[in-house]
Amino acid sequence: MIEFFFDCSSPWTYLAFHNIQPLAKEFGAEISWRPILVGGIFNTVNPSVYASRETPVPLKARYMKKDLADWAQSAGLAIKMPPTVFPVNSVKAMRGCIWLGNEMVPFARAVFEAYWGEDKDISQDAVLTGICNKVGIDPAKFFAGIGEQAIKDQLKANTDEVMARGGFGSPTIFIDKTDMYFGNDRLPLIREALARKKERAA
């Protein structure tokens, strides 16, 4: 079992969301998609993210754009960094993922692509309506659903849970509950862990 704690507002998560699916399929591993609010994590346990945005290191910031572009090219994805609106309020999109449950993946993929590939502001109802229409979701039901208290509570619970388990950002990935990995660039290590697990099971 792979648990994938994610927020669509993260560029590295966009890459990892795309890259982990064929990896999981290759090893016959099921993915449990766990939507979170990464801003809640930064506010609580990782405020250094905000400090680095306020006073960026120019050389590091320039390299990060190249690094993202290289990873996106490797994955065959379009990415614009930074988007016109950055950071973005992703709470409605992430509540939508919670509301959709087992059907969230096409919606989440469309949200990632709209924000990172098409530079659309995913905090806006009109953009979310367009995404709903694209993936066959009734927008009226969507907006009613994300307003339910239980949906809001579950998103907060997921965010609190990943912090309690040692997470400090998105994506945070667990194999078998306790083996934690952070970020798209850890996927080679995840591959090795899944290979070892498969060998032990053989």
Could you explain how this protein is built, in words?
- The chain is an alpha+beta fold and 202 residues long.
- Helices cover 61% and strands 9% of the residues.
- The chain contains ten helices and four strands.
- The chain has helices spanning 11-27, 38-45, 48-54, 58-75, 91-100, 104-117, 125-135, 139-146, 149-164, 187-201, and strands at residues 2-6, 31-35, 172-175, 179-182.
- A four-stranded mixed sheet has the order 2-1-3-4, with helices on both faces.
- Helix 5 (91-100) runs antiparallel to helix 6 (104-117) and helix 5 crosses helix 8.
- It is globular, with a radius of gyration of 17 Å.
Helix and strand arrangement:
Blueprint: E1 2-6, H1 11-27, E2 31-35, H2 38-45, H3 48-54, H4 58-75, H5 91-100, H6 104-117, H7 125-135, H8 139-146, H9 149-164, E3 172-175, E4 179-182, H10 187-201
Parallel strand pairs: 1-2
Antiparallel strand pairs: 1-3, 3-4
Give a brief description.
The chain has 202 residues and is of the alpha+beta class. 61% of the residues lie in helices and 9% in strands. The model has no long low-confidence stretch (mean pLDDT 95).
Order of adjacent strands in the largest pleated sheet: 2-1-3-4
Structural class: alpha+beta
Summarize the helix and strand pattern as letters. Answer: EHEHHHHHHHHEEH
Largest sheet: 4 strands, mixed
Q: Strand share of the residues?
A: 5-15%
Distance between the termini: 17 Å
Summed over residues and divided by their number, the pLDDT gives a mean of 95
Compute the number of strand runs: 4
Rounded to an integer, what's the Rg over CA atoms?
Answer: 17 Å
Overall morphology: globular
Helix content: 55-70%
Number of helices: 10
Low-confidence stretches: none
